[in-house]
Every structure is written in structure tokens, then in C-alpha cells.
């Protein structure tokens, strides 16, 4: 008597306990609803569902499929819509679907009306809707796609013409329903255009007996095409298959059909619209939607559901043979050939025969080889007997041969040692090579030995090769190797892994040892190398990674050391960077910028702004500096210091720099000269890659000539690093441009080498004081003294002095007091677009 309360309490406890348990993750299983216009057992609906279910069942995870039938053929009323809506609302309450597949017009219309209200508003895939009926719902919602129903009457009659070349008359059978008239007239129109030589006879408006009488009265070479359902005189519906079967039995002409549900009824065949293929196409669209593709990105399908089919038994009835038909034509009901019936036995027999042939060949080969071996053995025995006689006859000769063999063996050992050395050492420097590094790292990895890997990449070595030749570059590498070896850091092992790339390996080292080693390397190369009587400034950018802190696999450590080295190279050459995780994000950011920089010039994403320069003695506009800007549609405006180093690294700066020069000169030439004694000049920054280009001078001069801009109105700006790499080549190019009247400015003076000997050697006209010095005015008296010294040196050398980044009145007064020639900065004007600069110039002219 107490058992029921006891079990009730037990079930209540288990239910509450289940609610308190953490949810167990399960992969989401999609829900798909297949909504059919017609009833279960209709061949068209069943084949369409079969094709869709089979294709969807291959997905992972396979979706749950619910199938519903609207029975529209028996109940084609709006009341049916209302009842179905109430039924589905109750059945699928709180049960949203991921996709709905609607078969034929009624299901499509019902889904469009109620999918949001009943099924959670999922995407909709339709089938069995003709192109004409689809226009009734135009424009389609963006979450709808599908397979358009399009029977191929023209293709069917093309097949009939191949089977019956003398075809002259064609009787087109269709009923008087709305869909029957539509499909029949559309077929007659299509056939009249594609086969105008065939006389078309319509069944429109005629009772079935009259149709049969007319068909049987036609000459024997005619055929009839069944397009849709047919209603008898009593108004009772005749099913698709039943009508086709009845018609085929009662006529003496070959019958061609358009749909797969009419096959196997005695019809000869046709270009068949396959319900199974339609279902498969709908399933493919459903798969794409489930994988995240929006329906608006999936075009409507109207192909792929047709196949050419010929019924073998019907063909025999009319004496038709498979002559000249396309290979893809399917013969339905055709008995298999002997090969098809006994394929396994035939192929097994052939395989055995082939195997026996191979065995026979192998035995013949083996016998032949045995025979040759015996002959060779006999010959060797004769040679051994002869050799034994010779050895016995001369012991001294044997001793001489032994000594000769011993010497040869020693030579082989030496050669092997040389080969081993060459395999694991660099031929130019004698250092360990990449293969040796790989072995060493593998040994560390096997024994779990902690280590630090320091990657050292030479700065600007490519320019040494390009300007002084590869032989000279090899001598520089040898000298740099000797300088590295002279450091003598305890425990370090050096490797040369590429042209200008070295690796130092420090077992059991931490970051402190890495920093000490890097400091000694940087100090060692603070003095220039002496190569063939030349002073060569050579430095390394260094990056390091630790094992196991930064990774345990050798390729991971190498990659992270390379990332750290690249950070040194792009932010401050000649320094060490210890790997940190955030550096990987910088690499990814760089890769994103590299991707978008490709084609940026062709897409018109680059623009120029111009920052005016004030001539202090006269208080007038002297000119303006052209500044490159990049605005990417996806990334937005990108700062120049983020993308210009990438342009230089990838050598895109040559093409972009040429465009900047052309645009700036064209803009300067377009400005009105006005009444000024001297029109404004334009300043253009020149990269070292541009300057080292063979035809740099010709590009500059041809640009001036093309835009008719006087050379004295152009000032090119270079940095100190350009002439440090190759003074002779740079000097020759700049002297050529100076001889034409072009001005040359040395940009960012004071931040690099700042050598007076270079100032005297180079044909420059202008010194630009870097903004970092101007920022300290008036707070730093030391910086003020440096600025005064730079201005004084420039004046002694007849150079104009330009101060960058002037932003306060105090900075302006200090520069004017020391007779600075020009200033540039936000105090006077910020960088302006071309039209704004023209307005600025006009305003200054009016003032």
C-alpha cells in the first residue's frame, strides 16, 4: 500500500538530481521537414522523398527528417490549409526546424505563408514549382531557394527523332486542367520552335475516345507524348501511371513521356524529369544551408534532374535498337550481357591467366639468371685459380698489393672525413651548417636539453651584394664570421644557415645569458669590418627563443626566434628581441597588411596629402611635402609607419614611390604660379630601393619633363642610412640630379650616423632636423644646444635648415632666433588634401 508514494518520491528525487547535473555536451542534430503537396504512395512524391532522404542520410551528423503529406490532389481547398495549419501548430509546438523542403506548389505556398508562425521561420528549399508559377511569388524572400521544375519536351522529341528518323507527326496529349493546359501549350510552343518540321496535333478539349481514335489513325511512324494527368469524361481523376499504362496499351504508336512516374507503363521513354534526382538536388541545397551558406547565395537550380531513358521491352515492341544513342542513355529493363552476368568469374579467370603468365616469365627469368650465374661462377673460379697461381708465384708482389690497398683505404678514409665535414659544415666559412643544426636540435629534443636559440640576420647585406658584387659579399661574410668567432662566448655553438643568416646555440641558457651574448655581438660589430681595403659597416638584428619556455619542438623554436628577429629588423635594427607571445600577433597583423597591400595601388587606395613649409625669413609659403596615405575599404586608414616598411621589404616601394613622384609633380605643376617671385616647391621622400634602381635618375627627369615642372621646384628627401650602405653609388646618382637643378634634402638628421664627412661628400642642399629634437624645446637645454649646433654647421656648409614637427610658439621663436630657414608642423599647417592645399595657398596669397 505504501509502494506508490515511495516510488513517487524516488522518481521526484531522480528528476531533481538530473536537473542539478551539469549538461552533457552533444553535437547539434539538425531537424529537416519535408512537406509534400500530395499523398503517400504517389510515385512522384515517393521518389523525390527517397532521393532527398538518401542524400541527407550521408551527412554527418545526419539530420532528423520529418515527412508530412498535405493530400492536395484529393482536398485542394483553403479549408485544407486551415486544418493543416491547426494540426501542425499542435504537432510541432516549440519544435523549430533548421530547413524545410517543400515538394510542389501547394506545399511551397503553405510553407511561405506559415513557416515563421509554425516552424520557427527556417530557410525554405522548394521543388516541383515551374518557372511560370514561381513568378507568382516574385520577388522570392532571401531565405528561399530551390529546384525549378522544367520538363524537357524538346529533348524527349530529339530522342524520339534519333529512334525514329522518319518521324513526321506528333500527337501531344494533355488534359484540360489549369496545370495540364499550361504544360501542354508550353510543350507545343517549345516543340514548334525546336522541331518545326514535325506536325504537332493537340488533344486539347477532346474526350479520351476521340484522342485514341485520332492517334490510331495516324501513319505508323508517329509517336505521342504524355505531359500530365488526364481526367475522364466523368470527372474522375485518372492517376499518372494508370493513364500512361492505359494509353500505351490502346495505341499502336510509340509513347514518349516526360516524368519518371510514367516509366514502366509501356511508354518507350524520353528525356525524363527524375523525382529522385530532384530530391537529391534539394538535399544538396539543404546541406549547403546547414553548413552555413545563406539561401540568397545559392542560385535556383534548373538542371541536373534530367536523364535520357529508353524502356527495353517497349523498344523491342517497336523494333528499336541501341544505334547512335548518347552514351549516357539508360536502358531500363535491359537484360545484362554475359560479361555483366559473370563479370567476377571472367575477371578472376583473366587474373589467374595473367598470374600464370607472370609466373612463367619469372621462372624463365630465374632459369636464365641461374644459367648466367653458373657461367659467371665458372669464370670467377678460373680467375681465382689464376690469381692464386700468381699470388703463390710472387710473395713480394702480394706484399706490394697489400701496401697499395692500405694506402687506398687511408685515402678513402680521408675522403670520407672530407665528405662528412662538407655535409655538416658551410663551405665558405667553415661553420656548422643547417644540417648540423638540425642534428644538434634533434639531439637536444631527444635528451630534453634546455637551450636558447639566437637567430642573427645581417642588416642591409643585400645592398652590399647589389652594389659591390657577390664576390665582395662573400669576403664580407668571411670577415663577419671571423669577428663572431673572436667573441669567445663560453658554451656557444655557431651555425651559418643561409647567405647572411647565422644561429647561435646556447645549451642550458636563460635570457640573461642571451642578453650578455647579444651585447657582446653588438659591441663587436660597432666597429666597421675591413674588407679588401674598404670599411664596411656590418650589423646583426637578433631574435631569440628558449626551449622549453617558448616550445619544445625544434621547428617551433626556430619559427619563434625568426619572429623575434623580424621584430628587431622592423623596429630597431642592430638590437636583440626576446620572443614573447604578442609578437605572433604582430606577424599576423603584418601578413594581413601584406595581403591587402597587393593590388592596393591598382585599386586606387593610395592618396597623397601635402604639408606646407613656412619660409621663416620672409614669412611666406616655401613649398609642401608630399605624404603617402593608405585607406583600405576593409581595414580603414592605416598609419604610414605600419605599411611603408612592408612596401620596402617587399620591394613594392619602387612602384608606389614612382607613383608618388608622378602624382606630386603633376599636382605641383597644376598650381597657378600667381605673382610670387618663386612658385612653391614640392618635397618627395625617396626610398633606398628607388635610389639604388638602375634608371632612378631617368625616372625623375622624365617625370619632370612629362609634367613640365622646372627641376628647381622639386626637392627629393633621403635618409642617412642610404649613403651609409654605398656612398659612391649614391653620390654619383645625386650629383646627376643636382646638375639638373633638383634639390636634395637629408631627412631625420641627428637620429643616425650624423657624420660630417658624409655631409661634405654628398651633394645635398638641405638638412631636416628630426622632430624628436624639436619636441624637447624649451624643456631640454642640451637638445637646444644640439639644434643650435646643427643649424650652425648647416649654415657653414651653405645648407638650408628645415625643422620638422614644430607645434608650439616657443619652438618657433627658438628656431627663428637661431636663423632656421624653414619650419614644418601643425603650428603652421597640418597635412592637407590637394583641394584643401589649393585653398590654403589661395588664402595665403590673399593675405
Tell me what you see in this structure.
It is a single chain. This protein is of the alpha/beta class. The chain is 50% helix and 19% strand. The protein has an eight-stranded mixed beta barrel, surrounded by four helices. A five-stranded parallel sheet has the order 2-1-3-4-5, with helices on both faces. It has a five-stranded mixed sheet with strand order 16-17-15-20-21, sandwiched between helices. Helix 30 (809-817) links the parallel strand 29 and strand 30. The longest helix is centred in the middle third of the chain and has 51 residues, at 343-393. It is extended, with a radius of gyration of 45 Å.
Mean pLDDT: 85
How many helical stretches?
31
What can be said about the biggest beta sheet? Answer: 8 strands, mixed, barrel
- Secondary structure class reads alpha/beta
> Reading side by side through the largest sheet, how are the strands ordered?
22-23-25-26-27-28-29-30
Overall outline: extended
Strand tally, please?
Answer: 30
Report how far the terminal alpha carbons are from each other.
110 Å
Q: What proportion of the residues is helical, as a percent range?
A: 40-55%
Fraction in beta strands: 15-25%
What ranges have pLDDT less than 50 throughout 5 or more consecutive residues?
10-25, 232-236
Gyration radius, in Å: 45 Å
Amino acid at each position: 500500500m505504501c509502494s506508490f508514494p515511495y516510488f513517487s518520491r524516488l522518481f521526484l528525487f531522480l528528476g531533481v538530481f538530473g536537473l542539478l547535473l551539469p549538461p552533457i555536451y552533444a553535437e547539434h542534430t539538425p531537424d529537416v521537414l519535408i512537406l509534400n503537396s500530395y499523398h503517400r504512395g504517389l510515385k512522384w512524391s515517393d521518389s523525390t522523398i527517397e532521393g532527398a532522404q538518401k542524400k541527407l542520410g550521408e551527412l554527418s551528423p545526419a539530420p532528423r527528417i520529418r515527412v508530412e503529406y498535405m493530400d492536395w490532389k484529393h482536398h485542394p481547398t483553403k479549408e485544407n490549409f486551415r486544418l493543416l495549419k491547426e494540426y501542425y501548430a499542435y504537432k510541432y509546438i516549440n519544435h523549430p526546424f533548421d530547413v524545410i523542403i517543400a515538394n510542389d506548389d501547394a506545399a511551397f505556398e503553405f510553407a511561405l505563408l506559415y513557416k515563421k508562425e509554425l516552424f520557427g521561420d527556417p530557410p525554405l528549399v522548394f521543388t516541383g514549382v515551374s518557372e511560370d508559377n514561381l513568378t507568382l511569388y516574385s520577388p522570392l524572400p532571401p531565405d528561399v531557394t530551390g529546384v525549378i521544375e522544367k520538363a524537357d519536351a524538346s529533348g524527349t522529341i530529339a530522342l524520339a527523332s534519333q529512334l525514329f528518323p522518319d518521324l513526321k507527326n506528333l500527337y501531344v496529349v494533355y488534359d484540360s486542367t489549369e496545370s495540364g493546359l499550361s504544360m501542354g501549350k508550353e510543350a507545343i510552343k517549345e516543340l514548334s520552335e525546336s522541331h518545326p518540321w514535325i506536325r504537332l496535333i493537340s488533344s486539347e478539349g477532346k474526350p479520351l475516345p476521340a484522342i485514341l481514335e485520332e492517334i490510331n489513325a495516324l501513319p505508323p511512324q508517329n509517336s505521342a507524348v504524355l505531359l500530365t494527368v488526364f481526367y475522364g469524361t466523368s470527372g474522375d481523376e485518372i492517376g499518372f501511371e494508370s493513364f500512361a499504362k492505359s494509353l500505351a496499351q490502346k495505341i499502336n504508336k510509340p509513347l514518349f513521356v516526360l516524368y519518371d512516374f510514367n516509366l514502366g507503363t509501356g511508354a518507350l521513354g524520353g528525356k525524363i524529369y527524375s523525382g529522385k534526382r530532384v530530391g537529391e538536388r534539394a538535399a544538396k541545397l539543404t546541406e549547403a544551408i546547414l553548413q552555413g551558406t545563406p539561401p540568397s547565395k545559392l542560385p535556383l537550380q534548373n538542371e541536373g534532374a534530367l536523364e535520357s531513358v529508353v524502356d527495353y521491352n517497349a523498344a523491342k515492341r517497336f523494333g528499336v535498337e541501341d544505334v547512335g544513342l548518347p552514351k549516357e542513355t539508360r536502358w531500363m529493363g535491359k537484360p545484362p550481357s554475359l560479361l555483366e552476368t559473370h563479370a567476377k568469374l571472367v575477371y578472376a579467370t583473366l587474373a589467374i591467366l595473367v598470374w600464370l603468365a607472370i609466373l612463367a616469365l619469372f621462372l624463365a627469368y630465374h632459369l636464365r639468371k641461374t644459367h648466367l650465374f653458373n657461367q659467371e661462377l665458372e669464370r670467377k673460379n678460373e680467375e681465382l685459380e689464376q690469381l692464386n697461381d700468381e699470388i703463390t708465384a710472387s710473395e713480394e708482389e702480394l706484399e706490394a698489393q697489400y701496401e697499395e690497398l692500405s694506402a687506398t683505404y687511408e685515402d678513402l678514409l680521408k675522403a670520407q672525413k672530407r665528405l662528412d665535414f662538407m655535409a655538416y659544415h658551410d663551405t665558405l666559412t667553415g661553420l656548422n651548417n643547417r644540417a648540423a643544426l638540425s642534428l644538434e636540435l634533434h639531439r637536444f629534443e631527444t635528451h630534453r636539453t634546455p637551450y636558447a636559440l639566437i637567430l642573427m640576420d645581417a642588416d642591409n647585406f643585400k645592398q652590399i651584394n647589389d652594389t659591390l658584387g657577390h664576390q665582395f659579399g662573400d669576403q664580407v661574410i668571411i670577415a663577419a664570421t671571423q669577428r663572431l668567432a673572436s667573441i669567445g662566448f663560453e658554451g656557444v655553438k655557431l651555425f651559418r644557415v643561409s647567405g647572411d643568416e647565422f644561429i647561435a646555440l646556447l645549451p642550458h641558457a636563460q635570457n640573461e645569458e642571451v642578453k650578455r651574448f647579444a651585447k657582446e655581438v653588438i659591441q663587436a660589430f660597432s666597429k666597421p669590418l675591413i674588407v679588401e681595403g674598404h670599411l664596411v659597416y656590418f650589423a646583426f638584428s637578433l631574435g631569440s627563443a628558449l626551449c622549453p619556455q617558448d616550445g619544445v619542438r625544434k621547428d617551433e623554436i626556430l619559427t619563434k626566434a625568426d619572429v623575434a628577429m623580424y621584430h628587431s629588423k622592423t623596429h630597431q635594427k642592430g638590437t636583440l628581441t626576446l620572443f614573447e607571445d604578442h609578437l605572433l600577433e604582430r606577424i599576423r597583423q603584418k601578413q594581413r597588411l601584406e595581403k591587402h597591400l597587393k593590388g592596393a595601388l591598382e585599386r586606387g587606395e593610395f592618396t597623397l596629402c601635402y604639408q606646407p613649409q613656412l619660409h621663416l625669413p620672409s614669412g611666406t609659403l616655401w613649398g609642401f611635402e608630399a605624404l603617402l596615405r593608405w585607406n583600405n575599404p576593409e581595414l580603414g586608414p592605416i598609419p604610414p609607419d605600419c605599411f611603408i616598411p612592408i612596401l620596402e621589404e617587399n620591394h613594392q616601394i619602387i612602384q608606389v614611390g614612382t607613383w608618388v613622384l608622378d602624382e606630386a609633380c603633376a599636382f605641383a605643376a597644376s598650381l597657378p604660379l600667381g605673382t610670387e617671385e618663386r612658385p612653391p616647391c614640392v618635397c618627395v621622400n625617396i626610398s633606398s630601393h628607388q635610389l639604388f634602381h638602375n634608371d632612378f635618375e631617368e625616372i625623375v627627369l622624365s617625370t619632370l619633363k612629362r609634367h613640365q615642372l622646372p627641376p628647381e621646384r622639386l626637392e627629393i628627401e633621403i635618409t642617412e642610412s642610404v649613403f651609409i650602405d654605398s656612398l659612391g653609388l649614391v653620390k654619383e646618382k645625386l650629383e646627376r640630379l643636382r646638375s639638373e637643378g633638383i634639390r636634395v634634402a637629408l631627412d631625420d638628421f641627428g637620429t643616425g650616423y650624423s657624420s660630417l664627412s658624409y655631409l661634405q661628400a654628398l651633394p645635398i642642399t638641405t638638412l631636416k632636423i628630426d622632430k624628436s629634437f624639436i619636441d624637447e624645446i624649451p624643456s631640454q637645454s642640451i637638445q637646444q644646444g644640439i639644434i643650435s649646433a646643427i643649424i650652425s654647421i648647416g649654415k657653414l656648409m651653405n645648407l638650408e635648415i628645415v625643422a620638422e614637427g614644430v607645434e608650439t610658439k616657443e619652438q618657433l621663436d627658438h628656431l627663428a632666433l637661431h636663423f632656421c630657414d624653414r619650419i614644418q608642423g601643425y603650428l603652421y599647417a597640418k597635412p592637407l588634401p590637394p583641394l584643401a592645399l589649393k585653398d590654403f595657398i589661395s588664402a595665403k596669397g590673399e593675405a
